[in-house]
Amino acid sequence: MATPDTSSIRRHLQVSVTVAVAILYALGALGVFFYVRIEEEREFLESLRQRLELYVAETELEYGGEVGANFHDRTIERFEAIGESLFPNGSEERKPDGAIYYVLRDDEGNTLVRSPWLAYESFLPFHRQQRTGEIVFGQANLSDRRHVRTASTSFTLSRNRPPLGKELSSPPESGETLPENQVHLVLAESDQRMRHMLVILGMSLLAVGVLIMAATAVLIALLVRRACRPIDALGSECARIHSDNLDVRLAGNRTPEELRPLVIQFNALLDRVEEAFKREQRFAMNIAHELRTPVAELRSLAEVALQPPASGEPEESPHEIYRETAEIGRRINRLIETLSDLHRSESGAAPPKLTSVRLTDLLAGIVKPSDSTSRTEQRSIRIEGDPEILVQTDPALARGILDNLIGNALAHSVLTTEVVCRIATSEDESAIQVEILNETDQLGPEDLPHLGEPFWQKDAARSDSDHFGLGLSCVAAYAGILGIEVAYRLEKATFVASIKFPEATRELFAVRRGNTSGIQAEI
Amino acid sequence: MRVLYVDDSKVLRDTVSRGLRKAGFAVDLAEDGPTALDIALVGEYAVVVLDVMLPGKDGFEVLRELRESGNQSQIMMLTARVEIADRVRGLESGADDYLVKPFAWEEFLARIRTLVRRRYRQPKDLLELGNLRIDLRARRAWVGQNELVLRPREFGILEYLGLRGGQVVTRTEILEEVYDHSIDLKSNAIDAAVCNLRKLLADEGVNDAIKTIPRRGYLMEKRIRRDQDGNA
To answer: ipTM of this model?
Structure first.
């Protein structure tokens, strides 16, 4: 049997609901059938029991010593008249369904009276051991294979009667004791009619079941299709969303309540996809810009140099062209190296080499006076904190982080202000934190989420050819390798870049925390 | 012809200005949006080349403000951004051309020349003033079948006078458009060049093609004829 395609919710629902209805209907039909059967059998046997009691009441011992079983009076006619009057003993005609069969036997098993239809049949069960007054029900098959239900009982004929087969000339005197006359009566009735009725009931239930199943299958298919219409609509709506219209969102107002969480999650997913897509676009655009500009410069330099000079104009100096070409080449090289480094860091290709590093040494190495440029000349850098604090980190990567952060602080701080590098510990002394603070008039709170995004620069014109906007992306990548937390915040006009070394450095710190005198180095 | 080139890349500013001067254009430079706007609104430029990503004000903003002020210069947007939306935005904002970096120098020059022609409503590269023909692309000139042997400055003056045919052109305009302020206004270089041009034209039978309008400047007629064909 082929399994239904459960990948289709519609088919799954159709099959499941149809099977569920079929099971429920089958259980119901079986319940009805067995209930009717039990009730019918109960009524049938009750009727048989009543007849048996009637027959017992009608049986008496004559004074002549014979059993007088007057089973053919008006009372009994009700049960047997049809059979007895229409079909005489030995008739070959078919016995009617409602015929009553009886056999009255003495205690020795001799048949005293029997139903005319049993002229040649005396196999109705006979229970000699039966207790007096007890009614035992049973089943038997007649010679014509007709199935009958039997009820048998044993009873004693009156003690004031002579023994069976012995005649009394007069009634016994008072006080005379006569022997008991134990007899056994078996009554049988065909249950053909009941069985026939049950077969018809069963067939009817089956036929109705088939019809109900067919109707249910069609109805459920229609209902499921109708119920799935919002899913189809949702699918069509989703299919209309492409890379060029990622700003489209699914309308949740007409969506059924059950699908609304899906719509909400899908829209949230679209938000993230759109943001990622835009970030990728910005990245591609920015990298194109960063490469196109120097290539344009190189190409123009070369092609213009090849043009003949204007009359009266001096020839351009080849030395100047070479110098400019070399400078452009260095810039492209720096961009490519930064991108490669970023890629290596993000892909985790370079595992960190951890060693103990004194943070103040690291910071002092970064801000040494020989590195001063036109911008740094107008700013001072101050390092605050415990000079003995050591961290377990990769010196090259940690230097990369601090170098970029301090470089940014110098490049974007307000002229003649101070850049502060503060080494501190967290309140529970579990982590070491370095904060780099600078005054800025360039950044706003809306810029903070973009920090760390490759190529992002506050100046949309990207006119600063010394910076590509990759510094903070590198910081994020290095921090990821070292497990360092990096956070940026604005405190009024002060920009704070905060890096938190992981808990693994706590032990080293604890050993050396005795010296908390701190230093203030001004460069 | 005077061109304003606006770019925040110093290398490109220097290189492009050098190349344009070699090609006979007078060039002014600006490195940011506000400066570009100030210069373009004051000066008279045949072509303004605007980089899109500029400090201060971006190229689109400068373009919009120039157009709003009624500036008639031909404007070429120059950018490293290749998105169609940017091109459409530039052209819809009133730009006359859009070129993506990096560009081929020849293409850049050809586009500048096309814009210059458009500025002076000269649809073809060949400027025909009667018997005088000037090829603006090849920078050559003929009277009839005979080619005039011209120095670049002489060709610049002839070209400018030809494009402004029928109009009086002042010495200051020639100084700005052809000499790029490389000479002093009091210098007689312009007069000497015009004199030489007249001589060359006269050698080919064209007299009085360039007239001197006292205290105003020079005038070149729209239709120039050789003396044997009639009057100039």
So the answer is: 0.72
